[in-house]
Amino acid sequence: MKKLTFDITGMSCAACQAHVEQAASRVPGTANVNVNLLRNTMTLELDEAQGSVEDICTAVSASGYGASLHEAKTGTRRERTQDEIADLRERLLLSLIFLLPLAYLGMWGMFHWPLPLFLQPSGAGVYTNALTQFLLTTVLVYLNRQFYIHGWKRLFLLSPNMDSLIAIGSGAGYAFGIVALYRIGTALAQEPHDWTRVHDLGMNLYLDSAGMILVLITFGKWLEARAKGRTGDAISRLMTLAPDTAVVLRNGHEQELPLAQVNAGDIVLVRPGARIPVDGIVLDGNSSVDQSAITGESVPVEKHAGDSVTGATVNGGGFLKVRAERVGSDSTLSRIIALVEEAAASKAPISKLADRVSAVFVPCVIAIALIAGLVWVCLGYGFPFALERAISVLVISCPCALGLATPVAIMVGTGRAAELGVLFKNAEALENLHHVDTIVLDKTGTITQGQPVVTDISLAKGVSRAQFLTIAASLEFASEHPLAQAIAKCAEDEKILRRDISDFAATPGAGVSASLDGMRYHLGNRRILETLRIEDETWLQRAESFAQQGKTPLFLAEEHHVLGVLAAADLPKPTAKEAISRLQADHLDVVLLTGDNLRTANAIAHELNITQVQAELFPQDKERIIRELQQKGRKVAMVGDGINDAPALTRADIGIAIGAGTDIAIEAADVVLAGNDLNAVAEAVELSRATIRNIRMNLFWALFYNACGIPLAAGALYPVFGWLLKPVFGAAAMSCSSFCVVSNALRLRFFHHTQKQTVSPVSDNPRTIVLEVEGMMCGHCVSHVKTALESVPGVQSVQVSLAKNNAVVQTAAEVTVESLVAAVTAAGYQATLQQKSS
Fold first, then answer.
1. Tens digit of pLDDT for each residue in 379-402?
2. What secondary structure letter does DSSP report for 572?
3. From CA 17, how far away is CA 9, in angstroms rounded?
4. Are the C-beta atoms of 817 and 608 separated by less than 8 Å?
5. Which of 306, 402, 433, 506 has the fewest Cβ atoms within 10 Å of its own Cβ atom?
6. Rounded to whole angstroms, how far apart are CA atoms 712 and 366?
7. 764, exposed or middle or buried, with CB in 10 Å at 0-12, 13-18, 19+?
8. Once rounded to an integer, what is the mean pLDDT over residues 172-185?
9. Which DSSP symbol is given to 435?
10. What DSSP string describes 744-810?
11. In this predicted model, what pLDDT tens digit does every residue of 583-608 receive, in sequence order?
12. pLDDT reading at 518 higher than 60
């Protein structure tokens, strides 16, 4: 099956959407047909052995619409929307020029405004007045002829739509006015003149109503088009992120080329403050890169040689030489735009009710209008009264509001999600996420940073930190083990150089040993000490203490005594605790599943306030646990990043993949987080709930409006309350209904998280304390300082800045500066008071 996208022309309401969908579905070989009224597109799957693109286009054309294969050109849809808005505006302005005198003439009987004698309908000017109204209305009919062209065409094809309702309603008023014009002429030709009859005919032409209906509907269409144009603002902003040109190094010369001419493998030069044009690898240079436009992360990320960079992100103060890896449609930005557009064009399950109603809505409205007119004629109220009731029913009915209720909210919601770094693959995922009541988290790489760092170093008497790290880094230099890389990174951050070693030896399951400056050193786990027959309970107890915290202890020893012990751990991401608190505040159960050992899992869970933990799991175990949760009636979302998470991501009701994860995990997921911040999971859940609330509001309004408006227009309340609805007011209400639905959906553009109060008590008199922190070298240092400060009782929030070398701490009144300084010092850094305020 091949997935295809078509551009559809001629649709104006939900009934059109239903007709196109039915026409395409009847073509052999088609499946999963989805028509989007907002974007005027159709997606489907086609078995080319049974049907062809030509068959689909022919079937759609036979139903009265146009279809062609979609051309994916940047900005095409926006240009089309702007052209539509300009066309409607021009038509509206021209229509108003003729409507104003028409309304003045038509309403003379109510207000008795000044009129020349030859135009006053109360006397001999009645025919001139009627003829002038007819001419003005004829111009309005011509200017807004599209309603008649499309409306009558759909009616003759037995697939009436909103244009058909307008054409029938205004056309009936126009035809009645023409008949009245002839009746006035006939009455005036008879002697003696029946002036009472002539006056009644002149005051009930309905030509002004026919003209006003057309202009009011056009006004509503213009408002709707403007509002719909703003629904794609998020995608438009994404499209403008990429620079138009790139500076490329070719044959030793710098050339500024259009972005479309940059190829994979080209060397791209990125100057300070410029946007990075392509996805690539840094070959040379150091800089901080603002990735907020892609990942939603507010803090710039340091980039060095060997690091990957993403197109459309902003280079900071350094110069970068980048080798292009992915360009054009393969770039991250292009894939994000494609994903957002695909999600916006898809259909949510909640829209099925609207689809079923829309399919029969227009025929039912026409039937109701005919019945209402016949009933009033039978009751003896006269043809003009009955005609007015029928026209009111036709023009107040609004299938557009029903058809737009879901797609506009989906489009705005997915666009806003993309701005927050959350990519929904389809509308079904956006809807289903709001049902979730359980969030299952993988540990490594999802809530932790995915690579261990040195967290603690305990030294023997007489051994300095520099000496310890020099020996440890030298022993582990050639190793690719994650713990070895953590030691090397720690030494590099502290600017400690390794030394040359000799007689290197590795003991499987224990550690490594080597000679340095004539001394034999050993680095490894407890088995290293057993091999050396070193028995020292003090060091063993320190190591056990680290192990209970979920850390991995490593001993550094000479032949006869221990020089120290270091601890390494895969630390939680800086925002993990905040994100999990947000999920819990959103009434979601958080479960931690990991293949790691139970002690480490429990330590991480305790630190992050997670109460449900299962450890030492294989991939199939994670899938089984999620299945068991579902069997208990839970709606489960799984968040993961690795190949081993793919079965669980597929099994879960909603799979959420971390953007930095494997391609397999991303492929298996329903939602992709562009960054690594777990707060995006909470954002996704909250935005999903907000979008579904918005859709329900839209559907309620559309159904409520029609349920109340149609009986009122038909005159159902006239016998009891004397309430009647003029066709003009019905047209005005119809124009506003679609605009209200679209405007309500646009509120999602301003969605932002409102921080909920957590269960922990907050002081009535919080203080802000700013500490100057020395010794921070990297993001890991920031994490250590933040964790140390958060461990102080009474601390409510901590923001640590590497750029400013400070920490902003929100504390309860009883927390002292000394306790904060002590916590930072214990973590291996120096802190002094910079500012304090109540």
1. 988 888 898 889 888 888 867 777
2. B
3. 11
4. no
5. 306
6. 15
7. exposed
8. 87
9. G
10. HHHGGGG----PPPPSS---SS-EEEEEEEE---SHHHHHHHHHHHHTSTTEEEEEEETTTTEEEEE
11. 999 999 999 998 888 888 888 898 89
12. yes
What are the Cα distances from residue 247, in Å, to 94, 280, 308, 337? Answer: 49, 14, 18, 24
Residue type at position 83 = D
Dihedral angle computed from the Cα positions of residues 795, 799, 800 and 803, in that order, rounded to the nearest 10 degrees: -160
DSSP 259: G
122 contacts 196 by C-beta, under 8 angstroms: no
- Asked whether the CA dihedral 259, 262, 264, 269 is positive or negative, the reply is negative
Q: Which two tokens stand for residue 57?
A: 């286009």
State the DSSP code for 275: B
Tokens coding 645: 């998470």
Question: 654-658 and 636-640: which strand pairing?
Answer: parallel
The CA distance from 166 to 146, in Å, is 11
CA angle 803, 808, 814 (to 5 degrees): 160
- Cβ-contact 70, 197 below 8 angstroms: no
CA distance 594 to 601: 7
Q: CB 136: neighbour CB atoms within 10 A?
A: 23
Cα-based torsion angle of the residue sequence 639, 641, 642, 644 in order, rounded to the nearest 10 degrees: 0
Q: Is 442 tagged catalytic? A: yes
C-alpha distances out from residue 350 to 25, 31, 36, 431, Å: 20, 20, 14, 8
Per DSSP, what are the bridge partners of residue 275? Answer: 314
Cα(824)–Cα(773) distance, integer angstroms = 8
Number of helices and strands in the chain (H, E): 31, 30
Token output for 458: 């305990």
Q: Are 389 and 372 in contact (CB under 8 A)?
A: yes
Unique residue bearing structure tokens 């009701």: 653
Single out the catalytic residue among 442, 596, 653, 670.
Answer: 442
Residue type, 564: G
CA-wise closest residue to 441 among 571, 547, 574, 583: 583
Q: Would you say 74 and 197 are in contact if contact means Cβ atoms under 8 Å apart?
A: no
| pTM for the whole structure | 0.69
Q: Which single residue is written with the structure tokens 């009033």? A: 376
Instruction: Give the Cβ contact number of residue 428 at 10 Å.
Output: 17
Strand order in the sheet with 301-303: 301-303, 287-290, 314-315
Q: Which tens digit of pLDDT belongs to each residue from 200-220?
A: 777 777 788 888 888 888 887
Which of 461-475, 560-574, 598-612, 723-737 has the weakest average pLDDT? 723-737
Strand partners, 290: 314
Q: Which of 651, 665, 774, 38 is nearest to 405 (CA)?
A: 38
CA distances from 253 to 128, 256, 541 (A): 80, 10, 63
Over residues 333-352, the mean pLDDT reads: 74
Contact 770, 835 (CB under 8 A): yes
d(CA 530, CA 553): 15
Residue 154 CB contacts under 8 Å (≥ 6 apart), including other chains: 16, 19, 64, 160, 161, 163, 164
Helix or strand or coil: residue 672? strand
Question: Which residues pair with residue 320 across a beta bridge?
Answer: 270
Report how far residue 596's alpha carbon sits from residue 608's, in angstroms, rounded to the nearest whole number: 16
Q: Which residues, in sequence order, are CB contacts of 3 under 8 Å at separation 6+?
A: 43, 44, 45, 46
